[in-house]
Amino acid sequence: MRIGELAALVGVSTRTVRHYHHQGVLPEPSRRRGGYREYGLRDALLLARARRLTELGLSLSEVRDVLTGDSARELREILLELDADLARQEAAIRARRGRLAALLSEEAPSPDDAVSPAMAEFLRCLEPVRDSPFAAAEAELLALLDAAAEPEDRDRLLELMRPMTTPEAVARAEVLHRRLAELDGADPADPRVAALAADLAAHLPRELAASLASAMPGADDPFAQAFLADLSPAQAEVARQAMALLAHGAAS
Description:
The protein is mainly α. The chain has helices spanning about 5-10, 15-25, 40-55, 60-70, 75-105, 115-125, 135-150, 150-160, 165-180, 190-205, 205-215, 220-230, 235-250. Helix 1 packs across helix 3 (about 40-55), helix 3 packs across helix 4 and helix 10 packs across helix 13. The N and C termini lie far apart (about 85 Å). About 15% of the residues are buried. The model has no long low-confidence stretch (mean pLDDT about 85). This is MerR family transcriptional regulator. It comes from Microbispora maris.
């Protein structure tokens, strides 16, 4: 058989056959007097095996080693690893489809809604307080955390924030955000600033406050500066004082 006949018989392209030769998956056959490769039944069987194994997900180097008997691992071990990898991919696809289903359930989904299901559920619980600029900034920070943090760290933080989703906690948050809104345009030295900072720090659950305090960035941290830059001077001062109170509480 010529290379084109071999490729057609197995259902691959002649380019694939040549690539398999180059990668050592398929040994070079004998050549005719004119230099053309001459393939036999054995070559067709090897090529068919290689095709089946690559379709299962084996790399060409794994296929080469399996077919030549040079693999340090049994084919069963390789296939078990492939099966485990496919199971992880299936779980990831199911999770992505779950997120898509949640987005598609909205009449007008927005890019800000494309967060993990756990974060989306948390943000829905805080919907009553999301109409203030400060609350909107908090929601944006949480969305950023959802994208940047490791899933375990994000889930742990969400668990620590769970007490903030009770009706009583949401009602307190509404009052705090209203007081923050009232400071828009106020002087940072306004006497309401210190009282509100203390109430904000006290609003956080104890374990959450301790966790945030241990991971609190310094005032010169670019991330903290970017967050504070979006607030009015008095509101930014509230945030600074609240962070200082949390840090002090963790140290004492």
